[in-house]
C-alpha cells in the first residue's frame, strides 16, 4: 500500500467518524429526550435496514427534522403486489395509503394498520406489535448496497479479466492488488481445504463470497452508514447457500461419515448403542456449522458497529475537552481495527465454507482428518 | 431465585474468551518452536478460534 | 434469540439470495473463469519455460561434455601423432646413420683396397725402376770393370752375394 492510499484511508475513517458524530449531535439536540436514550435509539436505527437512503439529517431552529437522501421503492405482497415510493412514509411519521390499505413504518418494519394508524402490542412483552406484517420485498438500503457492491465487483473483476486477455496474462493497475488475493484464496483456502482435485468447482463461490463480504464490510465503515453484513437476513442467506452447496455436492463418503461414522470398526450391535447419540449429533452438526457461520459474521459486524458508534456517542455524553478527544481517538483506533476485522471476517467465512466443502467432497479415509466436523 | 440469562451468557463468553486466549497462546508457542510452519499454524488457529467464537456468540444471543 | 428472529427480514433474505446467485453467475462467467484460466495459463507457461530452460541447460551440459570429449580425443590423437612422428624421425635417423656407416665402411674398404693396389703398383714400379737402375749401373760398372778379368769375376761374385741377401 502506498502512502497515498494509507493517507486516504485514514482521511476516510476520520470523515466517517465526523459524519456519524454530526448525525448524532443533530439528533441529540432534539428536545424532550435525554442524550443517552437518543444515542441508543440512533445506534439501534443504524443497525437496522431502512426503507430510504438517508445520508444525513439535521434539525432546524423550530425543532423540525430534515433528512437528506433519496427514497427507495417499497414492494409489498399483501393480497397482490403493491409498489410505492418510501417517501410516502415520511420517515415513519405518516401512514402510507395504497389501494385502500394503510401501512405504517414502525421501527424499520412495515405493518398493516387502519386509517388511524393503530398499533396493537403483544400483551406478554408489550414490545412487539401484533399487527399483520405483509411480505416486504422492498428495495431497502441494504439491497441498494448489495446492488452497488455487485456492480462494483462485476465491473472490477471483469475489467481485470479483460486486462489479462489484452496484456498477455499480466495484471495491470488495481489488478495487481487483487490478483494475489485471488491466488491466495485459490492456493491457501481452496486447495488447502478442499484438495487439488475438486477445488475448481467451488472456486467461483468462494471468490464471490469473499469479495462480497469484504466489500460490504468495508462499505459498512464508510460514512454511508450501511450495515449489510451485520444484518441477520443477509448472513442467513449466505449461510443457507453454503449449507445447500455443501450438502448437494456431498459425496458418498460424506454421508457415510454422518450416518455411519464408525464404519467397520465395530459390530452392528455395538454401533446401535453409540449411534443413538452419535448420529443425531452428526445431523445436528450439519445445521450448526452454517448456523455458526451466519451468527459469527452477523455478530462481529454488529458488535463492531455498536462499539464504534457507542464510542462516538461518548463524545456527546462527556461534552468536555478531555472526553471528546479521548473518545474520538478511541473510536479512530477501533475504526482501524474494524478495517482488519472486515478482512478477517470475510477470510474466516470463506475459510470455513471451504473447510465444509472439503468435508463434503472428500473421498478417502477419514481417520487422519481432524475431527472438526463435529462442531 | 431465577438467574438472569445475561449472567449465563456472560459466563459462556468468559469460557469462550479463555478458550480463544489459550488457542492464541499455544499458537504463539507453536510458531516460536517451528517458525517455518507459521502459515499452517495460523490457519488452524483461526479456524479453532472461529469455532469457539461461534459458541460465544450463540451464548450471547441466547442470553 | 428473540431479537434475532424479530430482526430477520424475509424480503431482504430473498433479495440477498437472488442478488448473490446473480452475482455468482455473472462473476463466474465474466470474471472468475477468465481470471483463473489466465492465471493457470500463465503458471503453465512459467512451468513450461522453466522445464525448457532446464532442458536447455542439460543439453548445454551435454554439448560441453561432448566437446570436452572431442577435445580429449583430439589431444590424444595429437599425442599419438607426435609420438609416431618422433619414432619415425628416430628410425630415420638411425637408418641413415647405419647407411652412412655402411657407406663409410665400404668407402674405407675401397680406399684401403685402392691404397693396397697402388702400393703394390708402386712397389712393382719401384722394383722395375730398381731393376733398370741396377741394370744401368751394372752396365756402367761392367763397362768400367770388365776391362780387367779378375775384377770382373770378383764383382760378379760380390754382387751375387748381395742379391742373395736381398
Automatic annotation (TrEMBL), chain B:
GO terms for molecular function: lipid binding; proton-transporting ATP synthase activity, rotational mechanism. InterPro entries: ATP_synth_csu_bac/chlpt (IPR005953), ATP_synth_F0_csu (IPR000454), ATP_synth_F0_csu_DDCD_BS (IPR020537), ATP_synth_F0_csu_sf (IPR038662), ATPase_proteolipid_c-like_dom (IPR002379), F/V-ATP_Csub_sf (IPR035921). Residues 7-58 form the V-ATPase proteolipid subunit C-like domain. The chain crosses the membrane at residues 6-23, 44-62. Pfam families: ATP-synt_C. It is found in: Cell membrane. The record marks 53 as: Reversibly protonated during proton transport. SUPFAM superfamilies: F1F0 ATP synthase subunit C. Keywords: ATP synthesis, Cell membrane, CF(0), Hydrogen ion transport, Ion transport, Lipid-binding, Membrane, Transmembrane, Transmembrane helix, Transport. Its main location: membrane. Belongs to the ATPase C chain family. This is ATP synthase subunit c.
